[in-house]
Amino acid sequence: MTEGTASRERERLAVALPTLTLDTSTEPATVTGTLWLDSGIGFSVDLRIPNGYPEGIPRLYCRREEIPWIVDRHVVGSGVACLCVSSEYRLHWPRGSDLTDFLKCFVVPYFARQAYYQTHGQWPPGQERSHGAVGIVESFSDTLSELGSPGVATIERFLIMLASPGHPKASDPCPCGSGKKIRKCHRRLVWTLRNNVDPQLARNDLSLLRQSQSRPVSPSA
């Protein structure tokens, strides 16, 4: 992270989330501190910034004493918070956004849901995303809502397109499955997704979805 970028990030962070601090002297750079919610509950923030930022996605690490490191609490591996489906990151945090945007978009809602769970023993109504392939289907059902109720086969076709590094041709078949060419079908949707979804993140989701094929997650379409 350049010094100019770090300075701008610190300035905005100090105004929007003053209890958090950006430290670029560490490897990787981190945002740390206590994030206080409107409910009065506070969570420790350990947001690790990838080398080469603003490319790459920051990772939030949870403290085991605050949030159990179990999949049912949306924590994986060695305390990494599962903030969303991989392909969703750039849809909600497009290039040009900053760390304050990331914290407000993903981290604050994540901790708010965790606080609700701690108080009520369940997730806020309608706000829990399932794990693994089921969560991917739920995510893309929202993203592809203009298609109606896309099934697994449709979602897989979109992920195959998004996992490819280049842009599809306007003359290629639309991944919606209509048989029409992209330019005569869902051109705007395809271009919006292609411009915002990182191919590597799409490959991650495609791999998880394919691993579930022996255990269908919803009817195909």
DSSP strand content: 5-15%
First-residue to last-residue Cα separation: 44 Å
How many beta strands in the DSSP annotation?
6
Q: What is the chains' assembly state?
A: single chain
Spatial shape? globular
Work out the radius of gyration: 19 Å
Number of helices: 7
Mean pLDDT: 90
Main sheet: strand order: 1-2-3-4
Helix content: 25-40%
Major beta sheet summary = 4 strands, antiparallel
Succession of helices and strands:
HEEEEEEHHHHHH
Low-confidence stretches: 217-221
Return the structural class.
alpha+beta
Walkthrough of the structure:
The chain is an alpha+beta fold and about 220 residues long. The protein is about 40% helix and about 10% strand. It contains seven helices and six strands. The protein has a four-stranded antiparallel beta sheet with strand order 1-2-3-4. Helix 4 packs across helix 7 and helix 5 runs antiparallel to helix 7. The longest helix is centred in the middle third of the chain and has 22 residues. The protein is globular, with a radius of gyration of 19 Å. The C terminus is likely disordered.
Describe, in short, the structure shown:
The protein is 39% helix and 12% strand. It has helices at 3-16, 89-92, 99-120, 132-143, 152-163, 187-196, 199-211; strands at 20-23, 29-36, 42-49, 59-60, 75-76, 80-81.
